[in-house]
Amino acid sequence: MYPKIPLTVNGQKQEIEADPEMPLLWALRDIMDIKGPKFGCGIAACGACTVLIDGEAVRSCSQPVGEVEGEITTIEGISQGDELHAVQQAWMKHSVPQCGYCQSGQIMAAVALLEENPDPTDEDISDAMTNLCRCGTYPKIKAAIKDAAQTLGA
Amino acid sequence: MSRLGKYTRRAFLGLGVAAAGGLAVGFYFYQKPYANPLDAKKAEGETPFNPYVMIDEDNTITIIAPRAEMGQGVHTTLAALVAEELEVPLEQVVVEHGPSSPAYFNAAMLEESTPFPFYDESVLAELARGSMKIVAKFLGLNMTGGSSSTTDAFVKMREAGYAAKFVLLKAAAEHFGTSEDNLTLADGTITDKASGKSVTYGELASKAAAVSPPSEMKLKKASDWKILGKTQKRVELKDKVTGGRIFGIDVQLPDMLYGTVRMAPRKGVSLKNYDKTATLAIPGVKDVVEIRTITGEGLGVIADNTWAAFKGAEALEVEWDDPLSLQNSDQMWSVLENALTQEATFELGGTGSDAEVFTSIPESEAVSAQYRAPFLAHATMEPMNATAQHDGSTIRVWTGTQAPGLIQSVVSSHFDMDSADINVTTTRLGGGFGRRLEVDFALYAAVIAKATAPNPVKVTWTREEDTQHDTYRPMAIGEFKGQVTPDGTLKTMDMQVASPSIIQSVMPRIFPGISPMGPDNTVLDGAFNQPLDVENIRCQAHVADLQVPIGFWRSVGNSVNGFFHESFMDEAAHKAGKDPLEFRLAHLTSDEFRPAREALKRVAEMSGWGTPLPAGKGRGIAHVLSFGTWTAQVVQVDVTDNTVTIEEVWAVADPGIVLDPGMFKDQIMSGINFGLSQALGQEITWADGKVEQANFDTFDAMRMYQAPKITIELLENSPRMGGAGEPGTPPSTPALANAIFAATGKRIRQMPLSNEIDFI
Ligand code: FES
Ligand code: FES
Question: What residue intervals traverse the membrane (chain B) (predicted)?
């Protein structure tokens, strides 16, 4: 009854049956059982659901799954085996997360930022990182991004 | 010190058997609040056993931390208490919230982590009266509030660690045929110095289980601590940087269905009519069920994915029956204004001075101001959700809760079941802030699960539903008056606060049979209990019901009264022509207020208080004592083109003992940003019987570009242990308002400050 939608998620090609209108977030979470992207608002206002599509940060709650063009990367797909991504490592080092709920979205937004701008200034970070954190971990997010930028640049 | 103290169950440390051949160390609890020696004997065979430390044969060391982990690091700190005495590094232990296998399931343990641990009417009434302690215990996050329960955990967890070490050492001595003096402990192994041979705790576990527990607890001195007092890595850190499936919303069970709710605008409004045709026509929607519970009425939508459920809920045509008289915010403000003109409901603290003192302040020496604070939503990052399953005679619930015992209690009474047949698994929480002390989300899931039985159902609220069906931080008006004598002394201070009572709102949702009695401290917290040397003080509450469900919101009454009180101190200082810091210190001369003085002086040094600033900039200062922690803050703002930038915040907190400085500072930082967020524009308003805000576009919080630089220091002058999670919040808003006054001469007396001035 639903059309088959081909997707590439974290390097794996697959086909799901879903309403093409369904937001990518719910296709990931409820159909593909990929729980890294979180639900926060459903209107692209918080960033908890951030994933990468061809390297660009996208709020998956507001992206119809049927219209996805490109490869999807969720937080589950950024580490190499046991080796965490430099951004994740910086997050650990600075002990960024509190409740942690916003952090997979924050990390994905940071990965996308550093991809585009390997040496961001404070202002670049503030402009790019618009994700909400109710625990107010912003100062640590900023510090971790700068740290990751150094590691990645080195 | 604490009223709760006398109800705390008497506990005996003991041993039990963990998984095959393992060791469990914990406490036996008496069931009765009032233990007496006779009860003790009788109860011995049947006392429930609550393990805190479990050591399996394979040397897995599990520490039970029966508190909700919602970002405050409580699991890490509770585990550190045990690990310190047990001589194992924190990395070597596994931390679990609660009983993970049925063998350890025990209701008493879960009840331990609920706000109302005892179901005895007189005790509840007592608890309602001592509400601050309830809050201290459960919102104050880990070692909080200076309440005996916390101090109790501080001791209890270390004792469990000590006892485990004690029996393991005895078992090792026997194992090696030597004396304990010849043994060394490190990293979960015990080594015989003579032979150099080692044995792990796990290998000794079954032998150790047969050793009698120690009769005397020889806990380490603070100066010998290796883990406590130092910053630790969060035990769940890795999960939180890898998108771990740790939250309630991540629960996935075989054959699980998905659901959501569409509830009446508030408790008291009932479900009249509805048409589900359009909903059932949505592909994926399976059913619509009625929800009629003690916390509210409405409809549940069941579907085969969350999105279909959301669409289905939106498509419902519903007619509510709303008998409530207060339909909009203006009416509610009028009720509070009116309450202020009525005789006070109760008063707390104060100097007991004659009423006349407060009414006969000479005009020229009078300073008076009226402050306002609106309703606020918690807006936890993870929207409310719960998963439930009816399987025959039991109901299972998986959810991020601050009060699993309350869920058991309310769900069991809804279905007229035994509370032992309600099994609650607590996940990690995507924010709590007091919202997850409520039971509504779990109760609705349990009701919907009845219709999906035997299949489980995960019920997730939309953000709109979450914002519009919160148990809000109450709105309040504070009318403050004072007398400043010509020499600049605040001689008299009168505080009149009109607000609904949180306890009166919470109790009927949770224990309908019990009417709360006595004053609700939360109405005046942050006003009546502040360090202040003033000759005449009066603090009175004017309680008025606004027909809106209200609840505990990070720092509770302090979030309102801290703003009122500290804004007023600034106004009084201005009237006196004194520097706000000097003025405060001049009214904090008692010995017992030393922590406040030291915190203020230190924060002044850190912030360069008193040094000149360029035009358009200003600093504001505030101090609030809440949850046992003395917290002083300075906020610096820049005001350009009538637009405020919060540039920097300095904070000094004194909780007496700091168990984990890194975690503690994180909490203060979080509390500051949480507090400042409300000033930037948070406000819940009512129109036509409904909340007007719905999602983050209309109820937002601080974003990165608005976040100030924050510097925090901790002091340990206070004689008692205080909390970390909340004390950062109350001083932030008055310090900000005072800074705006310093920069512009504009005094803003109502929250959100954004109603009167723009922020970037
Ligand atoms: S859930 Fe997608 S932006 Fe909030
Ligand atoms: S860490 Fe809790 S919302 Fe960001």
Answer: 12-30
